[in-house]
Write a structure and sequence with these properties.
mainly beta, 388 residues
């Protein structure tokens, strides 16, 4: 009898332990499902990732319909970041906004004290942004400040989160490597001119376009300078890194360099025209937007080059824009113009999307796998989705 009683007690204890374990497992599962997750179809930072390739597997197709519009407090100068079902964008009044990406409804606002002119960067559950006063903020996706770091001059380029660090280009002629969780300075590298373009990370390096026309390759580990390349030009857009090569634009030339040595593989002049967009690296193609010979804009063209050789592959005339954002997918290239948002089939150049938007700021177009977002001159963010 005593043995049977002992057996019953042991069975009861085992059931209680298993039940508690299952309950803990359910709580953990619920916690994970409710946590903030960056999906593969999101656009969490400028260029979409640390390598700045501006490439997605797929994007929205026509017909589109306007899903929502939300008015902000001041002018929006850069494309929003979209991640975890939320949209993050800053304005010239120093406000960082978090909107629901599906509805446009505000979730929170954060006062960054000074103008925000670059795309916020989202990494895990933190949003990083720099300001015109030289402050860098780390803000949780709940809108609560985690840390701030004051630098010597304005931060007009997007902050680059990479691993446990955050890289910040400043107009005070320094690149800062900050601890991601605390904002403490890990290392600083000085330059000879202001830094106004976001750095790019890849293959153990941080690539820094400088105001003196030089591209600097620094080692991520300690900021040690490895090589320098002189473009004899001026940068407006970050470099892009793919398969052992660095691609970058000056206003008049496209360059392809070796990641490890900085050796020039090829370069393509733009002639009398200006490069007016970021780069997209789509498999074996490098794509950019060329403007007219006038600095004020005019007719632009999408142009594609063979990534290994630099040979021209195709071009397509598009609308004008002084500065624009382009995104490549497996099948299409999306581009903002002064009239709206367009998408063209790669290769054939067939028009696949024609979404007019009055007052659009072409450089503010963000494409995800489900929606297209863009800002207009009247301080509004517009969202377009596929109409089923």
């Amino acid at each position: 009898m005593r043995g049977n009683s002992l057996l019953k007690v042991m069975v009861l204890l085992l059931l209680l332990i298993l039940g508690a374990g299952a309950a803990v497992g359910m709580l953990a599962l619920r916690g994970r499902s409710s946590s903030f997750i960056v999906d593969r179809g999101d656009w969490p930072m400028e260029g979409r990732d640390q390598a700045k390739r501006a490439w997605l597997e797929q994007g929205p197709l026509r017909p589109l319909q306007e899903s929502w519009v939300q008015r902000l407090r001041d002018r929006i100068e850069s494309a929003p970041a979209v991640a975890g079902g939320r949209l993050f964008v800053g304005d010239r009044d120093g406000n960082l906004y978090c909107l629901d990406a599906a509805t446009g409804l505000p979730r929170w606002e954060f006062d960054a004290k000074s103008e925000i002119t670059a795309t916020p960067s989202v990494s895990e559950d933190t949003v990083f942004v720099g300001t015109g006063s030289g402050l860098v903020f780390a803000v949780g996706v709940d809108g609560k400040e985690r840390w701030r770091r004051g630098l010597g001059d304005a931060v007009s380029a997007s902050v680059l989160p990479q691993g446990g660090r955050v890289y910040v280009a400043s107009r005070d002629k320094h690149l800062y490597a900050l601890d991601r969780d605390s904002g403490e300075i890990i290392w600083v590298h000085p330059f000879q001119a202001p830094l106004e373009v976001a750095p790019t990370a890849g293959e153990g390096y941080v690539f820094v376009p400088c105001g003196d026309g030089l591209l600097y390759a620094l080692k991520e580990k300690d900021g040690e300078l490895d090589w320098v390349y002189d473009t004899r030009g001026y940068f407006k857009f970050p470099a892009a890194v793919s398969e052992g090569r660095v691609y970058l634009l000056s206003e008049f030339e496209l360059f392809c360099l070796d990641v490890q040595t900085g050796m020039e593989h090829w370069k393509q002049p733009s002639g009398s025209t200006y490069f007016r967009s970021n780069l997209c690296v789509r498999g074996s193609q490098v794509i950019a937007c060329l403007g007219s010979g006038s600095a004020e804009g005019g007719g632009n063209s999408l142009v594609a080059f063979e990534a290994r050789t630099g040979d021209p592959l195709w071009n397509k005339s598009v609308g004008g824009a002084d500065k624009t954002a382009i995104t490549a997918t497996d099948k299409m290239v999306y581009v903002g113009t002064d009239e709206g948002i367009y998408a063209y089939e790669v290769g054939s150049g067939a028009l696949q999307l024609d979404q007019k938007l009055r007052g659009i700021l072409p450089q503010t177009v963000t494409v995800t796998d489900e929606a297209i977002y863009a800002a207009t001159e009247n301080f509004r963010i517009h969202c377009f989705r596929h109409s089923r």
